[in-house]
Amino acid sequence: MNTVTRPRILVVGAGFAGVECVRRLERKLSPDEADVTLVTPFAYQLYLPLLPQVASGVLTPQSIAVSLRRSKKYRTRIIPGGAIGVDLKSKVCVIRTITDQIVNEPYDYIVLAPGSITRTFDIPGLTDHAFGMKTLAEAAYIRDHVISQLDLADASQDPVERASRLQFVVVGGGYAGTETAACLQRLTHAAVKRYPRLDPGLIKWHLIDIAPKLMPELGDKLGSSAQEILRRRGIEISLGTSIAKAGPEEVTFTDGRVIPTRTLIWTAGVVASPLIATLGAETVKGRLAVAPEMNLPGNDGVFALGDSAAVPDLAKGDGAMCPPTAQHALRQGRHVADNVIASLRGGPMRPYVHKDLGLVVDLGGTDAVSKPLGIELRGLPAQAVARGYHWSALRTNVAKTRVMTNWLLNAVAGDDFVRTGFQARKAARLKDFEYTDAYLTPEQVRAHVEGTSRQE
Ligand SMILES: Cc1cc2nc3c(=O)[nH]c(=O)nc-3n(C[C@H](O)[C@H](O)[C@H](O)COP(=O)(O)OP(=O)(O)OC[C@H]3O[C@@H](n4cnc5c(N)ncnc54)[C@H](O)[C@@H]3O)c2cc1C
């Protein structure tokens, strides 16, 4: 018989925020102080900022998937699945396991760190025809897809088909979209040398954004440098422009242009995980509204952080909330662990304060722009800072070694542009990768929890 009386801490999501929190809890709490459980659909922590380098083949997918089970010190119980609802009143989290079983997990403390999903708009055809850049599967899939466009264009006798397979559209001029367009353009630029029948002049990359600037957080001068680098490499940048309609073989821009293409990559921002809506609590732009201590006011033992929470940015002030970045998420992870421990031991919680360290943008090869601590860098120094920052932020030495080896190998031996064919015949657009339809409504969560407790 299970006679556990220790407080139960449930962490949802094994990303930057969730894993940092769990590791800190493991380090600071003795095993008989609390039971720690982690719910995660995957057995790894994904280092998202390096996804564009997986898509372009500079890194292998495994090198940015950091294992959750590398050490015996990792004593947390891991439930392989996704949380699909939280009932705050009964303190129960409803989970769909990876074998599709629905289980109830009671908690005393819950730390919500399920991150975000790709933000989409009501644009005809978007979710059916666009690819995202938010999961490891998407990055690996896009690489295969782009190489397959070169293969198919090379084999085609139809000039119209060729032209459409060799145009690529990326929507979103933030760091994710800009790095994706830059890294993939380098891939096609290098790969086309292996296709003597293809005219390299037919390959065209478009990067579009509704905003008037790329990556406005870089400032005017550095933002213009990034644009200049991309334009020099032949990427057509259209600002103040979005998508009006997406189809299987063409995309219509809001300025009326119709681009024949089979590749639309959508990176126009993120919204909090749909799990947050299942709580029925107050949100700010979809993110759970939490106090500066990252607890949910009026609900003891509930904490949220990272991309899924609206954490006040006290360093900025003026009612700002922390931007959805890894930089904040991992620091919030450590901080929330301290606050959970404080509330468990009856101590005071501390508000989260962190001053942004800046931004690094890797545009592939020696092209980069970075702004560490407000210092504007371009070219090699910027690249050294960008790679140095990511490398040092990787959590384990094994991941660091894999990434460094991949970088060196790629610099020396280049890429072989191999198309693996995994997923080739499966549905693989935005809606297929992010499982957004898995969640319950707040009423369904309550009904499920009440129904199952009656049966017990
Ligand atoms: C292409 C790209 C490039 C980026 N580059 C940078 C950069 O250069 N610098 C920077 O600071 N930030 C960058 N970011 C943003 C950064 O990656 C995010 O802000 C950060 O990952 C947020 O951390 P998180 O822990 O909140 O969420 P995540 O790291 O996304 O982790 C969420 C975790 O929760 C899991 N999960 C989701 N739903 C559920 C559920 N229902 N139940 C259980 N688990 C769930 C997910 O599988 C995931 O493991 C980039 C993002 C992208 C997509």
Automatic annotation (TrEMBL):
GO MF term (any one): NADH dehydrogenase activity
Domain FAD/NAD(P)-binding as annotated: residue spans: 8-333
Gene3D superfamilies to which the protein is assigned, alphabetical: 3.50.50.100
Record flagged with keyword Oxidoreductase: yes
Enzyme Commission number(s) of this protein: 1.6.99.-
Highest taxon listed in the record's lineage: Bacteria
Pfam families associated with the record: Pyr_redox_2
The keyword Transmembrane belongs to this UniProt entry's keyword annotation: no
Keywords, in A-Z order: FAD, Flavoprotein, NAD, Oxidoreductase
SUPFAM superfamilies linked: FAD/NAD(P)-binding domain (SSF51905)
Uppermost EC category: oxidoreductase
Family (UniProt): Belongs to the NADH dehydrogenase family.
Official protein name in the record: NADH dehydrogenase-like protein
Organism: Streptomyces chartreusis NRRL 3882
